[in-house]
Amino acid sequence: MTDNPKHTVTIIPTMKYHDAPAAIEWLCDAFGFEKLLVVPGENGTIAHAQLTFGKGMIMLGSAVDNEFGKLQKTPRDVGGIGTQSPYITVADADAHYRRAVAAGAEIVADIEDQDHGGRAYSCRDPEGHLWNFGTYDPWLLEHVWKTRSNTMDYPNLETLVDSVCARASDSVGAAMSLDPACYDSAALYELECQRIFLREWLCVGHVDQFPGPGDYRCVDLIGEPLVVVHGQDGEIRVLSRVCRHRSVEVVAGAGNITRFVCPYHAWTYALDGQLVAAPHMQNSERFQLSDICLPEFRTEMWEGFVFVNFDADAKPLGERLSGLTELVKRYRVNDMRTVHEKQYDCEWDWKLMVDNFVEAYHHMGSHRETVEPYYPAKGAVSEPFRPEYGVVHMPRNRKAFEEDDEYLPTIDGLNEDERNRLSVITIYPTHLIALTDHALYWLQVLPKAAGRMVLRACLCVPPETVARQDLKELVKEYFDDFLEVNKEDMEVCAAVQRGLRSRFAQSGRLSHLEEPLTHFYRYLALQLGRQNSAQSLRLGRRQRAR
User: Fold this and answer.
1) Same domain? 124 vs 180
2) Alpha-carbon radius of gyration of the chain
3) Is pLDDT of 347 > 90?
4) Is 243 in the same domain as 380?
5) pLDDT at 5 over 50
6) Model confidence over 349-363: pLDDT tens digits?
7) 531: buried, middle or exposed (CB in 10 Å: 19+, 13-18, 0-12)?
8) 316-344 pLDDT, tens digit each
9) Could you tell me if residue 92 is inside a domain?
10) How far is Cα 242 from Cα 250, in angstroms, rounded to an integer?
11) CA distance linking residue 114 with residue 97, whole number of Å
């Protein structure tokens, strides 16, 4: 058995279908499976298929009348009785339920909260196989305690919020880390969604990723399927990518497009979200194309980064970051060009990612050969707390750089301090930036659930570096080092999350070099301690999008 069974699948259900090609398409459409391998058989059958969902997999093939096939029966062959019943963990059971219903799944157990934890439903696919989907995750400490422990109480939501507020009031000398349950509580994550992610400015990209009309990227934020698109009018917008007809996503992935065409019924939208075509709707009463458009959310640019906010009443981003604008102006972040990016599926909490990013203390352990020699932890200096963002400066070890070859040119126009430090910036809650004298790293943190997130890591350089003939060689070596540091962070974050799930995990004393964590805790306390109800939130989207 592996140390982390969520990274290595050791149990894979196998299933048989009379119409396997149709089943594969339906499972992908209705449940969100993805095709990893499909091997065609004779006469339109499927010899073998592998479909993935997160870290899990199913194998399936066509029901055939051979010796092995006689050992397996489909529900159709045995009077509609299920012969097996997979359970699949999802981040948002309600959204998954709606998707399955829209695709025609037969609901046999309606969605509801479960006594053992989480929220779940059960359904049958078109050939009668029984499926169960829910948010209960046996690897989450909260759920483990609920099902196994009769002697220890898992902290409730009120207790967890109180503990965050208590940590926020600690002085640097008396500072403690958060309660371990804060990184694994589904209830706390739901509150974070309501009071942080649905109210705060969240980064969804950089303008250089959308250079011309039609350039788009899909991004999922807190269960909302969005698309960032450069419109024909030059504006970059963030739209819902859910069709206003029957809720199928109108676009996927990234690329260039002239219009969004729903693959279900061919409803067609312009790049500004306006519906421009809907076949055979002339007999529908009071139906007007002009009345319908994809919801558009509040979008602001800051130094080339594209931010979105679901709250129509949120304070403008530019006002909040005016002090930070002054700090980064000589780096010309808005002119930077992305030369490499990589995405990671992460089995740890978003707050843990921020914790790890903001402090230099771990350089001495996790990065003792890659970062510590160049930016020693002991020299790190935190700027005073601000509720909008945090900044830590890490002076470089000039001797180490003199002894090593630098392979990217220095950014023009930086002052002496900027040329000789690494500045780590956190725009709360999830936008992480690292500025050196030659490049910009930024991390896009996309929370998925308690203890789960997606991370997109990007490396950017100035236009003059991009113009160099030896760019490819320069960047490759630099990016290899970048990936090595990322790998070290991935390993330690996964290890911390595993440790936090122990019943013996506890809050620990912090070093003065971990002062940025106390700033982050203060931010969390300010947001989670809000008294106003999430129900009063007014979503920042076009009111005519109905």
Assistant:
1) no
2) 25
3) yes
4) no
5) no
6) 999 999 999 999 999
7) exposed
8) 999 999 999 999 999 999 999 999 899 99
9) yes
10) 6
11) 15
* pLDDT-based confidence at residue 147 (cuts at 50, 70, 90): low
Count up the domains in the chain and report the number: 3
Query: For residues 142 and 184, is the Cβ–Cβ distance under 8 A?
Result: yes
Domain shared by 131 and 162, yes or no: no
Percent of the chain with pLDDT over 70: 92
Both structure tokens of 166 = 């208590």
For the purposes of burial, counting CB atoms within 10 Å of the CB of 280, is it exposed (0-12), middle (13-18) or buried (19 or more)? Answer: exposed
Residue 321 domain flag: no
pTM: 0.74
Range of the domain at 463: 151-187+330-537
Residues 156 and 132 in one domain: no
Q: Is 465 helix (H, G, I), strand (E, B) or coil?
A: helix
Would you give the DSSP letter of residue 195? I
pLDDT tens figures, 23-69: 999 999 999 999 999 999 999 999 999 999 988 999 999 998 887 77
Same domain, 43 and 161: no
Cβ atoms of 33 and 27 within 8 Å: the answer is yes
Residue 3, in any domain of the structure: no
44 burial via Cβ count (<10 Å: 0-12, 13-18, 19+): exposed
The answer to whether residue 316 sits within a structural domain is no
Counts for the chain of helices (H) and strands (E), in that order: 13, 25
Shared-domain flag, residues 84 and 157? no
Count CB neighbours of 271 within 10 A.
23
- Rounded CA-CA distance 20/47 in Å is 9
The closest alpha carbon to 437, from 466, 463, 417, belongs to: 417
Residue 465: which of 434, 433, 440, 435 has the closest Cα? 440
